[in-house]
Specification:
binds pyridoxal-5'-phosphate, 13 strands, 5-stranded mixed sheet
């Protein structure tokens, strides 16, 4: 077909499986196992749906102001979007237009190369070192921009602020994006570096630590100049991206800092306990500061474990990709969910040792 010659062809990002059935242990997409803040649920029940006939506030001003207050920045430094995926896609479109390759780690969030391909942005990956760490010196080569998550995914490793700052300091001619999707689980945010660098964009999300993946809320914080450019592109693309319920309930979630600290604290505690248990069962993993553990077993291949777990209705994430095809990314669920995972693994490993598989 002639028209097909002019189609923008892309290989889409593959998201983790969303099994349609109840009763599975879902540890494959880093969602929060706890509900959103109680006020969010209360407000959702009382929401005046009559207002849905109107367009939402195109600037999402209330949410922008709530976030600006929480993070001690000006509202002009905050941009919100439909999940951080939307924020990141907008940022790629806005900032990575030099024609030089952008840089990101070889093992990282697998959406970055998809957006680069979508927008025809050339890119180059920088291999993590043998302990899965980012090497700041790799980012001291000519480039059209830099992006990396901190903590990184799917390794869960947190880079020091020295490493993060070195990458920003040596790349002041381009925009550097730090994707902090997992920073609330014991990481250190690059936000204080905004005082020094106007080319830094820090991206965060409500999907993991605020238990609101279903509402789709993401945001980024940067210099007024950077955010201004992002808004110009957004308002040239779609004025009304964030729906009204997301704006209203997002504000409510930001207000409840106590609950936020409580659930992230619980997940951190469970994570540290599960690390010990997994070690005992013969797994090794980078020392995660996120809400997941990237684990490799000493004898059983990851793919085999992935399939066995799936057959038992325990969903974890597995990629058949270079460097990571012998690891499973296991989201931290509730203590009870993790116990069921551990009991299954213990039994499976015992049977496989006795040659009963
Ligand atoms: C989950 C995730 C995102 C996107 O999350 P949203 O639900 O779109 O906010 C972005 N970056 C990383 C590294 C993630 O793991």
């Amino acid at each position: 077909m002639k028209w097909e010659e002019n189609v923008r062809k892309v290989v889409p990002y593959v998201a983790g499986e969303q099994p349609g059935k109840a009763d599975v242990i879902k540890l494959n997409t880093n969602e929060c196992p706890y509900p959103p803040a109680p006020g969010v649920e209360r407000l959702a029940a009382r929401m005046a749906y009559g207002n849905l006939r109107l367009y939402p506030n195109s600037q999402a001003s209330m949410l922008v102001e709530a976030l600006a207050g929480y993070y001690h920045v000006k509202p002009e430094q905050v941009f919100v979007g439909v999940g951080s995926d939307d924020v990141l896609a907008m940022a790629f479109m806005t900032f990575f237009n030099s024609g030089n390759p952008i840089l990101f780690p070889d093992v990282t969030y697998s959406f970055y190369d998809v957006w680069a391909d979508l927008y025809r942005i050339p890119y180059k990956t920088c291999p993590l070192d043998e302990k899965w760490h980012i090497r700041a010196e790799d980012y001291q080569q000519p480039n059209g921009g830099v992006i990396f998550p901190n903590p990184n995914a799917p390794t869960g490793l947190l880079e020091s602020m020295e490493t993060v700052e070195e990458i920003i300091r040596t790349n002041q001619d381009v925009v550097v994006i730090v994707d902090e999707a997992y920073v609330d689980f014991g990481g250190t945010s690059a936000l204080p570096l905004l005082e020094k660098y106007d080319n830094l964009l820090v991206v965060q999300t409500f999907s993991k630590s605020r238990a609101m993946a279903g509402l789709r809320i993401g945001f980024c914080i940067g210099s007024e100049k950077l955010i201004g450019y992002l808004n110009d592109v957004k308002f040239s693309f779609n004025s009304y991206t964030m729906n009204l319920p997301a704006q209203v309930l997002g504000v409510e979630a930001v207000r409840d800092e106590v609950y936020f600290k409580e659930i992230t604290g619980k997940i951190i505690k469970t994570r540290e306990r599960v690390k010990k248990e997994l070690k005992r069962l013969g797994f090794s993993f980078p020392d995660s500061r996120a809400n997941f553990i990237f684990a490799t077993h000493e004898t059983i291949p990851a793919k085999e474990l992935f399939q066995a777990l799936r057959a038992a209705d325990i969903y974890v994430r597995y990629w058949e990709k270079p460097r990571i095809s012998n690891s499973l990314r296991i989201t931290i669920g509730t203590d009870e969910q993790m116990d069921r995972l551990l009991v299954f693994l213990e039994k499976y490993l015992k049977m496989s040792k006795n040659g009963e598989m």
